[in-house]
């Protein structure tokens, strides 16, 4: 799974690599051994290339997220389009909303045939003890819902398909 994360104004490409010998990540092209263990509801212990970090995730106003590492607070943003949450049929503007990471579907907020506006909540996926509401990228008609509440999904799994609204 590959995505881009903006940390304190700098965009970093992060790829989680398949590995039989523990977790591996590639950060801006540099491969490293990685492991993370949740030590609380919003705290984790991160081991990156043998160096240990205590990380606390904090919510800011709106949907802002901050990571506090070694006492330094960093604003963090994962762009849903860059993270692969949405893929589009360029000819028609249709969209497939995908899970940004492995997790559990805790709520399905729409049904096939339902009209939605941009920003409308579609599905809520819990990952790493945080709930992520995935929203409609534009107005349209829910063509298909591929998941159900309680289902465990992999990163990149298609969750909802939306046919772009057509102008009359």
What does this entry look like structurally?
By secondary structure, the chain is mainly β. It folds into two domains: 2-78, Glycoprotein, Type 4 Pilin (2-Layer Sandwich); 86-164, OB fold (Dihydrolipoamide Acetyltransferase, E2P) (Beta Barrel). The chain has strands spanning 2-7, 10-17, 23-27, 30-38, 43-48, 51-59, 65-69, 72-78, 86-89, 94-98, 103-108, 115-116, 121-127, 130-135, 140-145, 152-153, 158-164. The strands form three sheets. An eight-stranded antiparallel barrel has the order 1-2-3-4-5-6-7-8. The protein is elongated and about 50 Å long. The N and C termini lie far apart (39 Å).
Number of helices: 0
Strand order of the largest sheet: 1-2-3-4-5-6-7-8
Question: Which sequence of SSEs, written as H and E, runs from N to C?
Answer: EEEEEEEEEEEEEEEEE
Helix content: under 10%
Largest sheet: 8 strands, antiparallel, barrel
Rg computed from alpha carbons, rounded to a whole number of angstroms: 17 Å
CATH homologous superfamily heading of the largest domain: RNA polymerase II/Efflux pump adaptor protein, barrel-sandwich hybrid domain
Beta-strand segment tally:
17
Quickly give the structural class: mainly beta
Strand residue percentage? over 45%
CATH architecture of the largest domain: Beta Barrel
For the record, give the distance between the C-alpha atoms at the N and C termini, rounded to a whole number.
39 Å
Average pLDDT level: 80
- Poorly predicted runs of 5 or more residues: 80-84
How many structural domains are formed by the residues? 2
> Outline, from the CA principal axes?
elongated
CATH class of the largest domain: Mainly Beta
CATH T-level topology of the largest domain: OB fold (Dihydrolipoamide Acetyltransferase, E2P)
